[in-house]
Amino acid sequence: MNNIMTVKDLCLWYGQTQALKNINIDIPEKSITALIGPSGCGKSTFLKTLNRMNDLVQGVKITGEVKYGDMDIFAPDTDVNKLRKEIGMVFQKPNPFPMSIYDNIAYGPRTHGIKNKAKLDEIVENSLRGAAIWDEVKDRLKKSALGMSGGQQQRLCIARALAVEPKILLMDEPTSALDPISTSKIEELASELKEKYTIVIVTHNMQQAVRISDQTAFFLLGDLIEYGNTEKMFATPEDKRTEDYITGRFG
Ligand SMILES: Nc1ncnc2c1ncn2[C@@H]1O[C@H](COP(=O)(O)OP(=O)(O)OP(=O)(O)O)[C@@H](O)[C@H]1O
Question: pTM value?
Answer without folding.
Answer: 0.95
